[in-house]
Amino acid sequence: MDKPSNRTESNRFPILASCLLCLMVLAGGYHPAFAGNDDDLALLDRSAKAFSAVVKKAGPAVVYVGVEKETSARGMGQFPDLFNDPFFERFFGPQFRHPRDNPKQEKRTFKQQAAGSGFIIASDGYILTNNHVVENTSKITVRLADKREFQAKVVGADPQSDVAVIKIEAKDLPVLALGNSDNLEVGEWVIAIGSPFELSQTVTVGVVSAKGRNRMGITDYENFIQTDAAINPGNSGGPLLNIRGEAVGMNTAIFSRSGGYMGIGFAIPINMAKSIEQQLRKGGKVTRGWLGVMIQDVNEDLGKSFGGKAGGALVTEVSDDSPAKKSGLIQGDIIVAINGEAVADVADLRNKIAMTPPSTDLKLRVLRDGSEKEVVVTVGEQPADMASIGKKMTGTTLSEFGLSLQDLTKEVAEQFSYAKDQGVLIADVEADSAAAELGLQSGMLIEEVNRTRVHNLKELQQVLKKSGSGRQILLRVRSGERSQYVVLQAK
Predict the structure, then answer these.
(1) Per-residue burial over 304-316, b = 16 or more CB atoms within 10 Å of its CB, e = otherwise
(2) 389-426: per-residue pLDDT in tens?
(3) What is the Cα–Cα distance from 405 to 397, expressed in whole angstroms?
(4) Three-state SS for 477?
(5) Considering only CA atoms, which of 325, 329, 338, 331 is closest in space to residue 296?
(6) Which pLDDT value is given to residue 174?
(7) What digits encode the pLDDT tens for the residues 221-278?
(8) CB count, 10 Å around CB of 477?
(9) Residue that wins the pLDDT comparison between 412 and 182
(10) pTM
């Protein structure tokens, strides 16, 4: 990792000092008029000019992205939902019948307009923005900082990361420099520029609140930078800048109970966005790496039971004919590092593998039977239909109740003090699921399903197939020496 230059460090401390000074002035605890020294005011002035210089440098490359989407519905005039109410048919006749009951009713097309932001990454018109800004649009209009407008086309988009590349036909455009998000540290100053509520070239300032945020439910692959720089609807796709005026992130989402700014915003790290952008420009799609394993997080108790500690990713199942299977990975392995770099959890492993080009050899450090072992795996290409792969690997439909299950291999059975083929192990329980509400936990063993003894996933699946709808399932679950019956009911 490159270290910041001395110039960067020297600029950082005056800015911090000036902001502390501002807080003192606002609080009434400092009175520069009586200080007899103009140095502090000069420091404030230099700090303000430093922020202004960053904005002047980066602003011309930040654009407004206006989009138009077409939707269709059967209805009346500008208020289709209102006139489709059965109330109108009752009082004014069948011509006001609801469209689902009157398919011959005229189908109307309506145009919806929305807006976001973007930033120019190549002088010949390539622009980086969010997929959700330009997805399913019929028209994209880009307005530059100098008010010129262009029609844009989508070069490529990746819904799994929410990154998209669009292009306008223009030359000699201002370009925003891309930084290195790996060098970004929590507490550093950052600047967001975009078009919140269609107000172009809006600038907000804050700090990096956290890094590596995941499991937010925003995209499939999450490694967000969290910031308290004000981000609002319309900022999506705009840049998050460091104090050198480089884009270190792309503003993507906010956490809000009101729909507006609440001090928590999320940005895609620019290193992730760059990797995806390069693939989109080259081939119009993104190819991701794949191991072919089911994995779960390792908490302290689970880590101890496997002879380790919390952290890493536990392999709960290995897909047949997968890179993991060919490399010798087995159920019960805990992947703790890749090429010497520690693996924090499931999300960290997924991101690292997904961003690795297929056919790349990786050295995995795994914990097996309490001892560390090195496994070399050649990363494969992620299948197009990952959902079907997951179903083949789990072999069960209990996922709708929040359960992730696995067979009891000899190694896993020994770890939990069970006998091989004694039942089906609960590998993970989804929070706020039907299973979680019943108190089911990872490490418990399912021995019966609907009063039928099961020894493995195959038998469990056969019982479920004979059970009809499966909206209600009776399980006998063992935890250590104690077993109990519970009834799973679909929500």
Answers:
(1) eebebeebbbbbb
(2) 444 444 445 877 888 888 887 777 877 888 888 999 99
(3) 10
(4) strand
(5) 331
(6) 97
(7) 889 999 999 999 899 999 999 999 999 999 999 887 777 778 899 999 999 999 999 9
(8) 22
(9) 182
(10) 0.67
Handedness of CA 393, 394, 396, 400 (dihedral sign): negative
In 3D, which of 280, 288, 283 has the Cα closest to residue 134? 280
Cite the beta strand spans of 221-261 per DSSP E: 224-227, 239-241, 247-254
Q: Over pLDDT 70: what percentage of the chain?
A: 81
**Which residue type occupies 306?**
F
- Alpha-carbon span 46 to 467, nearest angstrom: 74
In DSSP notation, 119-187 reads EE-STTSEEEEEHHHHTT-SEEEEE-TTS-EEEEEEEEEETTTTEEEEEES-SS---PPB--GGG--TT
Tokens 């070069």, located at residue: 155
Q: Which has the closest alpha carbon to 396: 427, 418, 422, 420?
A: 427
Q: Smallest Cα–Cα separation from 207: which of 242, 235, 255, 164? A: 242
What is the per-residue pLDDT across 269-286, written as a single tens digit (0 to 9) for each? 999 999 999 999 998 889
Q: Are 463 and 450 in contact (CB under 8 A)?
A: yes
Determine the Cα angle at 22 with ends 17 and 23, to 5°: 100
The catalytic residue positions are 132, 162, 236
Report how far residue 152's alpha carbon sits from residue 160's, in angstroms, rounded to the nearest whole number. 22
